[in-house]
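[09:14] KT: can someone run the structure on this one? pasting the chain below
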Amino acid sequence: MHVTIVTVSVKPEKVEAFKEACRYNHENSILEPGNMRFDILQSTDDPSKFVFYEAYKTQQDAAAHKATAHYLAWRDTVRGLDG
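[09:31] RB: done, structure tokens below
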């Protein structure tokens, strides 16, 4: 199993745009071969902070995720939203 944990800070005025982009990425990521878990958590203390927890069966499955159309769309959409 390969697990990736990522923390992201988003500009407060961009939180809703970030969440919308994440919904699309999440909906498609959980359908990927090898995906075991794909969680996006928003902090209750600071709504501009997020944690991604991604689990794939293999390192190759995790790498393949980074080449999917939905990941690339997410990456391009959220670029510049980080705080």
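[09:33] KT: thanks! The radius of gyration is 13 Å.
[09:34] RB: yep, looked fine to me
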